[in-house]
Structures are given as C-alpha cells and as structure tokens.
Batch of 2 targets.
Target 1
Amino acid sequence: MTHLEIEAKFKVEDIDRLKSRLLELGLKSSGEELQHSIVFDYPDGRFRKDWTVFRLRKNGDKGRITFKEPDEGKLASVRKEIEIKVSDFENTKHIIRKLGFVESFVYERFRENFFGEGFVISVDRNPFIGNYFEIEAGSEDRFMEVMKILGLNKEDVIKDNYRQVFEEYCRQKNINVNNMTFEEEKALKSK
C-alpha cells in the first residue's frame, strides 16, 4: 500500500493520562503490543544520508516492510510511504541481507494506537528515551486540527525520527549504545 504519511512526535510525561484523554475523546484503542524494527541501508549509508527509510518491522506475529521516501515537510514529516505485509519475518530479513543491505539501526517500543477519523495517535513506551506519542494524519489540515484538539503548539512538535532522538539522548548522557532495545537498556543499567 502506498500513501502520503504526515506525522510528528511529541514527548509525554504522563502516558496514562494521555491514554485516558484519548479514550475520553472517543478514539478506539488497538491495545498495546511490542514492535521490533530493523532499519536497513546500503553499506555506504546512502539511505540515511538522503533521509530515506527502509525498515522491516515485527508486531506480534505480523510483519511489514516499509520504504519511506525523503522527508519534504516543514512542521511535520511529510513523505511517501510504501508498505507491504510479510508472513515470514526471519526469512524476509535473510533475503534483505542477501540483497546486500545491512542493519543500520534496531529499535523496539511498546505501541498502542488510537484511531480517529482521518488520523491515528500512536502512544509509545521506548527504552532509554522514555514516552512519546505520534500523530499521523491523512492531510496537513487534519494534522493541525488534531494538534489543536490536544492543545499542542508548533513548538511541541518533534520532527526527528526515533533514531535521531535516541542518538541525541546518547550524546547528552555520554553513553555508547548502538540500538534502542529493551535488552540493551537492561544491559546498560546492570553495569
């Protein structure tokens, strides 16, 4: 499936309060599930250099390959996204590697999606960086409407992707960790 993705993320301290608010607004929850994502690139890093994303994701027993073209947005991330379902995560990962791609970043999160008319709000519990939520809408106008409903300002928008947020976190904390996984977070805390 190909569509135009318009999204941005926001930091949230009280995740339970946010979830309650979204339910009060009449949004429908998907329930929370663990997502495991692998970002692939060419060995020379050309996707990262031009802001392209090639990702394999596993949610429970479901898998997806996603290709996101370079970001063209000003306030929110605006990019064409192509996504297909895969039934065999491990063999898909093997094929991608055999095609010459390398794993450039691995990240995990617990995600709960809340569905509204023409938008989705994804609430994420992430290792290392804490809690965030994303608004993804079908149009920039709808994106701005949802921001207004939630009482958000343009200054609240974080356009960076999770890799960029994680790398900045690591710089600020002066830690050397390659991937944003719960296992790596646990290993670092046990040192």
Target 2
Amino acid sequence: MPKPLPTTVHPSPIDFDLHGIVGVRLVDANARDVAVVVHQLGPIQTTLDRAPDITIRFVDRLSTRSLRYIGLDAAFSDDAFMVLRSKQKTKARILLPMKDLGRPCEIVCEHGLAAVPLLLAIVNLTCLAKNVLPLHASTFQHEGTGVLVTGWAKGGKTETLLSFLAHGAEHVADEWTYLAEDSRVSGIPEPVRVWDWHLRELPDFWARVPRRDRARLRALRMAARVTDWLAAGRLGRAGFPRLSGRIANLLRRQQSVQVPPHRLFGDRVGSMVGALDLVVFAASHDSPEIIVKEMDSAEIAGRMAFSLQEERQELMRYYRSFRFAFPQAANDLLDSAAERESRLLAERLAGRRALALLHPYPVSIPAIFDALAPHLKNGPSRSGNGTGRHKESPAHPDGAVTAENGSSRRKILVASSICPEALAELGRDHDVVCAFGADEETLRRKIADREILVFRSGVNISAEVMACAPGLKLLLRAGSGLDNLNLPYVEEHGIELLRIPEPGAQAVAELTFALMLVVSRHVLTGDQLLRRGVWAKGDLTGWSLAGKVLGIVGAGSIGSRVGHLGAAWGMKVLGCIQHPSPARAAIMAGKGIRLTGLEEVLAAADYLTIHVPKTPATRGLIGAEALARMKPGAFLINVARGGIVDEAALRQALVDGKLRGAGLDVHAAEGAGKISPLADLPNVVLTPHIGASTIDAQRQIGKRVIEAVAEFARRPASIQSKTLATSRREPAGAAAGMS
C-alpha cells in the first residue's frame, strides 16, 4: 500500500506552465492536491515569470448555504456557480467562474478532489483565446517529419503514435496537440492510456509499465477469460451465461492503465515541441485492410470542427446550467468557441499535405507502421518553412511547378485571415504560408521566398518587410484601405498592387446604417436594461432617419453606397469628395447625392459619416474646429480609419452636449487590451473594426483573391516582370474614392 500523501498546505504557490501558452497556479494546495493536478497536466511545474492564466485555490470547505440545485451536478447562489461532481461522478464542490473562463480567472476547490473538474477543457479554452488551436490529436516526429494524427475518439490516434514510437519516433503529444500560429506543435505530458491488447503487441512498452499495473492487467485478463467460459454456458444455469457475458465485457473495459509518457517512452520524450509537416486522419472501417490515401486537409478541418465540439460537451453542459442560473450572464469565448475553432482549423491546416489512414478495429499496431511509414518517406512535401503542399508536377519555364488547374504553383504569404474556403483552395493549388497577426520579425522571415502577399488591415506591410522578399511580384489587398502599406516602396520597386474593394464596401456601408440606427434608437441601452428586467420603454425615445440630412465626408466607393441607402430611407444626402467635377456630380446625383463642399456638409448634417482614407492630409480632419461647425444635436459615425476623428475632441463634444451621439467602428488605438477614451459614454456605440466582416463579403473577397492569383499564375514569366506590374496599380486616393 502506498503511503498517504501529507495534507500540509504548501507555504508558497505551485506553478505549472504549458509551453509558455497557459500558466496555472495552485494556492494553498497540499501534496495530494498537487499530485491530482500533476496527473491531469503532467509534471510541468515551474515558477511563472508572469501572472497566471488560471489560479486554483484550495480550501477546507465551501459553504453550501442558500444553494439552489440544477440536477445533481451543479448548484448556484445569488452570485456564484458551483460544480458538484468530479472524476467518475464522485462528489465535489468547486466554485467555477464560468463567465470568466478563457481569461485570467480563479477556481476555488475543496481539498481532496479526485480531479479538478473541467481543468483540461478550461486550459484548452484559454489556449483558444490566445489564438492557439487545441487539437484532439497525437503528434510525433519521425526521421525529420512532424506527423499529427487526428480523428474522432477511438479512431486510432494512440495506436498510430505507439506504432511509430516503437520504431524510435519522438513523442510530442498523445491526447491533445496545441498548434500555434507559427506552425509549432506542442503537447501536454498527461498520462497515456494504453490497453492490455496494446501492450501485448508491444513487449518493450509492457516492460515499462509499473509492476503493480501489470499485475492488475493480468488479473483482469484472467477474470475476463473465466467469465467468458461461464458465458459459454458450461455451468448450465438459466440466465447465468448472459450475465457472465456482461461481466466479461465490463472487465475488458477496465483493461487499461495510464502511464506517464516519460516512463512509457523513456528518452523518446523530448521537449514535446515540434514542427508540423503531415496531417493524418485516422478512422476505423469495416474492411480487414489498412488503407492509406491522399486526403484534402480542408476536409479534415471541416470534420475536426465537429470533433472538437464533441470534446467540449461536458464544459458546455455546465455552461448551459450556468446560463439557466444566470440568464443575463454569458461567456463570449464559449459562445464563439466553435466559430473560432473552425476558422483556426481552416487557417492552420490550409495547404498541408494530408493522408487518410483507414484500418480495422482493433488493429495490429505494427501493421499501422508498415502501412503508413512508406508514405512518410516520400517526404514531408514542404518548402523551406514547412507549410506548402507539393506534388510531382511538370516544370514551369520560370522554375515554378504546375498546379492541378493547369496554372503554375506560386509561393504565397497570407498575412491576414481570409475566407477559410478560399484559403483551402489556394493551398490545394499553391504553396501557401500563413502569418495571421504576426509581428514584423515573423513577417520578414516568412516572406523571404514569397512571390505573392495577401493582406488586409491590421498588419503593417513596411518597406523592411517587403525588402526581405526579393522575388515579391504581386500584392493583393483583400479590401480597400492602403494606410498599412508602404506605397513609396511599392512604386519604387514596381511591385504590382491589386485591391479588392467592392465586396467590403457594401458591408461597410451597411454597418454605417447599423451604427446610425443603434445610436439614435438607444438599441444597446434598451437591450442591456431589458436583460436586467427593466422595462424602460418610456425612457428610450429616439430619432428617425427619414427626413434628416445625411452628410458624407468622402463619397467614394463606400460613401456613395451609404448615400444611396440614405436616399432610399428618405434622407436628404450631401457629400463631398477631394476632386469634384461636373461628371462626378452627375453620377452622384443619379444616386440621390448632392455634391458640395466640406463646410456645408459639416454645417447641415444631422448624421455625419466618415469614409476617407487615412493620409497625412486627413489625419485629425474631424477635430475640435470641424466639430464646432457641426449642427447642434448631430450624430457622428466613423467607419473609415482611426485617427481621422480626434477622439479627445469628440469626447468633449459629446460630454458638452454639442453632439447627441456617435458610433465608431475604427479607433486611434486598436487591438486586444486597448480601451477607447469614449468607452464610458452611454451615447456612444463602439465596434472592433468589423466593417467588412460579413460572411458574404469575405466569401466574395476570397473568390476574387483566388481569381487574381490564378490569373497571375497563368501569365508567362516575361509578363510577370516587375517592370510591367505598376500599370495595374490604382492611385492611393482612388482607393477610398477621394480622387
């Protein structure tokens, strides 16, 4: 019998660190509590050099007074939610801050738990919030090739891992693999569950299993054999064979052990970090043969989106209980987890070489290696940075290879998130590298051998970045604005620039009206009050749009659409542009827009909307002086770029009552952790630069990106020269309709 662990509380916190992604801190834990968490997360104790993401505080007893129960597994008080079940349905009491999961939070547990409920699911949600994709997958490195094996539960992931580790592969992960933006994969050293039949086929691993566990497996094996004999009816008692058969099946379900990876695999466990070269989709089928065949990585991404939702079901069940207890409270990370996973799956797996591994179940573990290993020897099929998907193809005159659609395969860097379906299609025909949200150093490294760069707003394409790509020939702006691109460098080096403004322009125009309506009809205030049970109908009288003056600063591609919508709403529409002419005035008049000067637009507008590009000339265009010239009680909407409107001056105008309200989709400081100086004002609506973020617009933009790349790839090499490229580039002012 092992000695019981001491119950003395550690005087200092105990920290765990999952590869710098998620930090966990135990407070007031005793040795048994620490051992429980080590069993769940593996021996990754360290001292955190940063604040923990998850704090787990242990106490002797949690109060159960004034609790209301939700079934047998959960309860709540006026201000807290409690989980009442732990491992194998054992009783427990855990205060779970469900609303804060995925962000820095503190969980409170009683001492002596068999396991911290939902801990791994909470760790995975925290990873997802940090743009790291948790994948239900086994991962290993074999002869220089990084292999990720995924599929539904019981699909053969662990069997594939064991088959390769038996031949010297390096272990990275068993149950969960974490796929970062830079294509690095990492694992968690939680115990590996191996079955008796696994170990009988792998005697080297059997010898590594602790003696006590081996004895237990032998005993279960013998007991199952005896009950099989009884089930065969040898005793002749009525009903006993059926009962014995059930007992035998129950015993077989117990014939597994959990062994720490370092004990089971020894020196085959390294840093548990590696590269990703090949994705294998493992599944069982009704044939006795093992089949390995090529598979589209986009199909794997689509399937695994639902597998990940299944793996999160227990957490979501408790989340539904939490929402039952607190209908007004919500966790946006949990609500959007499926969408985030689908997007990251499509992005991270796009263009990767993928195989399907179909096998009978149970399967011969050595046979998996024999069937799959030759396909690894064909090479990881990767470029120098490891994310392309290549096939043997005829040579192209300028050194490219020919894609399945007959055009030449091109080296593309996608620096911003685009439609997943478009990204997957690009990956099938071209060598695609993704760098979403990457810093400048990462961009410089990834762009080095690229010919085409696809980008949106939110990423800075500097001269220094482009200078690292001597073969850069085409820039595809999946949208309109060019304030994040060094245009002088593009012009000087003759790099072709192609924008795709139209699909996003319509989406931005629609959001402009959404902000106008929300801010003038008190929609957000009414929603928030009603969720708290406040019926404030008499306090929320708003303003109509019909009959009002709509003033448009920048009646170009987006602004003219806004004006056309305004005219349809019965508004009087005024607009200004940088270079007016009789011809432009006639075109605008056909859309219901009267062109005039900026001064009249400012003075007459009941609703002023901003649609100009951000340039030195437009920075601070709507400042204190411009705001002072506006009609008292007007509304201001900015969907152009942050910095065009002076936010400090706007705040003062709103506080003083000069303006009645404002809606901003763009901000001087954007990104996680940035808080607008207008955030505390009740007459302001703020959105996080989502103007072009509709499914429809992004699909249309993605389709145009594919068409543009295909057209470029079909050109003879001589026509792709940089000296001819600039003839297709539009003037920067035209990018926002201001020329």
